[in-house]
Design a protein that fits this description.
The chain is mainly beta and about 140 residues long. Helix content is about 10%, strand content about 30%. The strands form two sheets. Strands 2-1-6-7 form a four-stranded antiparallel sheet. A three-stranded antiparallel sheet has the order 3-4-5, with helices on one face. A hairpin with a 5-residue loop joins strand 6 and strand 7. The protein is globular and about 45 Å long.
Length: about 140
Amino acid sequence: MSEISTKPYLIRAIFQWCTDQGLTPYLAVAVDKHTIVPLNFVQDGQIVLNVSPAATQSLVMGNELIAFQARFGGVAQNISIPVDNVAAIYARENGHGMAFEVSELPDGDADLDSAAPELAAEAPDDMPEPPKGGLRSHLKLVK
């Protein structure tokens, strides 16, 4: 009997821990032609996705594939991520989580230009840049 990878189980466990703690689970994903994400949000061959229950619909975390629907720029998109492409899962608020080794992609897999055109959602010209991490809130705690 072949050994089953622990990676999908660990991803689901960290996801469950984040949601149980009231934290926001984020996935860092290496993007290749097998990854269905809006390509205009990909930077340096990677995308970071909020996979919290509030940000996703119909989330399925299987042993081979993670699939869900999410909104990008107000437009619902179907997302499909091979578990092998997940580089990390962590809580946005404190960075606690787990990183994974992503195996080297075979030659040609990293070529996003050959991805099906319907996978790339065009961003409207007036769409603002996504927020950068590390910014502090302008809100103050009033006692």
